[in-house]
Design a protein that fits this description.
Elements lengths: L5 E6 L13 H18 L4 H4 L4 E12 L8 E11 L3 E10 L4 E13 L8 H4 L31 E4 L13 H9 L4 H6 E10 L8 E9 L3 E8 L2 E12 L6
Antiparallel strand pairs: 1-3, 2-5, 2-7, 3-4, 4-5, 6-8, 7-10, 8-9, 9-10
Helix pairs in contact: 1-4
Length: 252
């Protein structure tokens, strides 16, 4: 049996960095999806296999804590492992590691398996009882499990967009990373000159479809926290929580 933990290497190219020379939050999130895909593929429950069952994985929740963002030309490793398998959800964790062994951050995610045609959840232990063999509870992830993200009360959107071709993924709904790209676009360049996103959480509530019109609502909370509510026809499609830290914040 393959080991329960995988370590996937990435090279940070200049074109995935922002104007500060750092990899962006959507890029770091993309590394997570790639590492999860590699881990699942090597163990026989990647998309290449489960699509034959008429089933696919969808991301339900994601939480990242980044202590330091890699810069252009850095090589990093993303470690990933399954923390738990429930009836309808699996919990998967990640650690970002620099070449010198320094931990750059962690991430925690929750995934559902759904039937492609009905879009209904699949009972994971009945479908794939072997997944429990890859649970690695001894490998600790220091990120606390996500709390509920409250709705935003504002009635004035700060940004809007229509879902287009480049937003749609292999599951024929809006790519989970595209939501994050639009969320960070709510903020101006000055914000990113002065701060970095230290913690980011997102919960996906509904599927976005081609031509959907999304409106983003923002609430500013104390201590550098923002809530972004992405809505379609007045209903939340996803909600995000961002906690900022200044650039001179001591690195962990």
């Amino acid at each position: 049996m393959p080991p329960a933990l995988d370590a996937v290497k990435f090279h940070v190219e200049s074109y995935v960095c922002d104007f500060t020379g750092r990899a962006t939050l959507p890029v770091m999130s993309g590394f997570i999806l790639d590492a999860a895909s590699v881990h699942a593929h090597r163990r026989g429950f990647g998309l290449d296999k489960i699509l034959n069952d008429g089933i696919t994985w969808v991301l339900s929740r994601l939480s990242l804590e980044i202590y330091q963002y890699p810069v252009s030309s850095n090589d990093i490793t993303v470690e990933t492992w399954i923390e738990d398998v429930g009836r309808f959800f699996t919990q998967r964790c990640f650690r970002f590691v620099r070449n010198d062994g320094r931990t750059l951050g962690y991430a925690r995610s929750i995934w559902a398996a759904i039937n492609i045609d009905s879009r209904s959840p699949v009972n994971i232990p009945e479908w794939r009882p072997d997944l429990k063999d890859y649970i690695l509870r001894d490998n600790k992830c220091p990120i606390a499990k996500m709390e509920k993200i409250p709705p935003v009360n504002s009635t004035e959107p700060v940004m809007s967009y229509s879902v287009r071709y480049s937003d749609i993924d292999i599951n024929r709904h809006m790519n989970s990373m595209k939501y994050i790209e639009h969320v960070v676009n709510v903020f101006d360049l000055q914000t990113f000159k002065e701060k970095i996103i230290g913690k980011f959480e997102i919960v996906y509530l509904q599927e976005g479809r081609f031509s959907d019109r999304m409106k983003l609502y923002r609430e500013n909370l104390p201590d550098g926290e923002n809530i972004i509510d992405t809505k379609r026809d007045g209903e939340s499609v996803c909600r995000s929580r961002i906690i900022w830290k200044p650039l001179n914040h001591p690195e962990r």
